[in-house]
Amino acid sequence: MLKISGNKISLTRGDSAYITLIPNMDDVPYVLGENDTVRVQVRDIPNTGELIFEGNIEIINDEIVWHILPEQTKDLEVAVYCWDAQLELENGDIFTFIPSSQFKLLDEVTMVDE
To answer: Does 114 fall in a domain?
Structure first.
């Protein structure tokens, strides 16, 4: 299950997710340049926290999509983490377009036994 409320994300551990990210510059959606980079990180606490995983960013139909793979969360502790999203322009400018926000990993019941 994926639930998004504002910038808060709740995801069942081990599930896939596709989350569209829309960077805004001066309240106008930014069109990603060929050499621009989007980076997403999930940490246990902001700033100095342990990196839990980094986002896989894909461009799908001209949209920036954060693809969370099942293997990125299936072995993680059910907990509340934090995440943000950052845009790095070709000229080196960096803009955090989604500030530190809650990433809640939920319990699962149905699992693939190994």
So the answer is: no
